[in-house]
Write a structure and sequence with these properties.
By secondary structure, the protein is an alpha/beta fold. The chain contains 14 helices and twelve strands. Helix 6 links the parallel strand 5 and strand 6. The two termini are about 35 Å apart.
Length: about 375
């Protein structure tokens, strides 16, 4: 399922997450190189021991200020950020309300906390309210942009439900940090909700094109979370050149309005073209585009048809998706050229009679919903 053809030099690669196309940016490379050449005193240790004006702490505070929050923690990955945060702030008596499409790391965080996990229907604030009324105050957990479909969270309504039900809320901004909001500060900032959201987490392997995760935390809770979050306690800190690169990336991201504008334009163009050709991509609106063929055999036919014409997406199957909701996920980025977008459109048109997207289960469900 996950291993088709090898990408060639002329392949159109839509299988990564570097949304702003920052890999190789000279400011970032320069910061990383300088750190490697100059830093000879660094001690590799758990981040529990990093205090004061340590570069990690400076980055943590800088990220928090950008997001409109008090403080935060740098982690080894977005996965460990979500797992470690939830494991620290919840326990057996804390109901956790998770959107049914919330990232696996969030579900694993609830499990690590031994907390009762209650799913609610995807992007359905009314269903969340009914579930929370039944089980009481807890923690509401959502993604700002969902990683498989590109659907955007109705965050204003979700926050209102959380407040009415006496819940805290955690928003995973992995796929909106850098791409949405003023200076790329994310969906919470774009909607003016940062002060009403208790925790923001993110993978820094998406628009930041690095290897790390991050979550915000109130300053008075930082030491508690740091000393009770197992992924932070029992993992070594990032290396100096990684921290230097991420600090430089933060400054680049803040100034990348032109790249954000291009990404939005590419997204609108590609989505309009695919929808016109009959591809059922209505479940999302953002730079992540799900071609949900349904079964694994049908998805392999789709993958092979795309790759035969040098278009490479990422195959998502169980457990990353529900059974029989397998897909090829296309992720757009700011550096796409007009010729590349035209090639995507031409290939999608050429293979449509073969893969028949109008017959995919998701298309049939959408038609059935319109008739009721």
């Amino acid at each position: 399922m996950l291993h088709g053809l090898e990408c060639g030099p002329n392949s159109l690669r839509l299988n990564g997450n570097d949304y702003l196309s920052l890999t190789g940016h000279p400011d970032i490379v320069r910061a990383q190189t300088a750190s490697i050449k100059q830093d000879g005193e660094f001690v590799i240790q758990s981040s529990v021991f990093l205090h004061g004006e340590h570069p990690v702490r400076n980055l943590e505070r800088g990220m928090a200020q950008w997001l409109g929050k008090d403080d935060g923690l740098i982690c080894q990955s977005g996965y460990s950020a979500n797992l470690g945060l939830l494991q620290a702030i919840a326990d057996e008596s804390t109901p956790i309300y998770l959107d049914s499409l919330a990232h696996t790391s969030l579900w694993e965080g609830a499990r690590a906390a031994k907390a009762p996990a209650h799913p609610f229907r995807h992007n359905d604030p009314a269903h969340l309210e009914r579930v929370a009324q039944r089980h009481g105050p807890g923690i509401v957990v959502v993604d700002s942009v969902y990683s498989t479909t590109g659907a955007i969270c109705p965050l204003e309504q979700i926050v209102e439900v959380a407040e009415r039900q006496g819940c805290m809320i955690l928003v995973d901004e992995s796929h909106s940090l850098g791409t949405h909001g003023p200076g790329g500060a994310g969906l919470c900032a774009a909607l003016g909700l940062s002060h009403r959201v208790h925790f923001i987490s993110a993978s820094l392997a998406k628009a930041f094109a690095g290897r790390a995760g991050y979550f915000t935390v109130p300053a008075e809770m930082r030491n508690y979370v740091l000393s009770s979050s197992y992924p932070n306690m029992f993992s070594s800190c990032l290396l100096p050149h990684e921290i230097a690169g991420l600090a430089a990336t933060l400054e680049v991201v803040k100034k990348s309005d032109a790249e954000r504008t291009r990404l939005q334009a590419h997204t609108q163009q590609a989505r309009a073209c695919l929808a016109e050709l009959g591809y059922p991509i209505h479940q999302g609106t953002e730079q992540i585009i799900a071609l949900e063929a349904g079964s694994e055999p049908d998805t392999m036919i789709l993958r092979d048809a795309l790759e035969a014409q040098d278009v490479f997406g990422a195959v998502f199957c169980a457990p990353a998706t529900s059974r029989n909701r397998t897909m090829v996920r296309l992720t757009l980025h700011a550096a796409l050229t007009a010729a590349e977008l035209d090639h995507l459109a031409a290939v999608a048109a050429d293979i449509a009679p073969v893969v028949k997207p109008w017959d995919w289960p998701i298309a049939r469900r959408a038609k059935a919903a319109l008739t009721h």
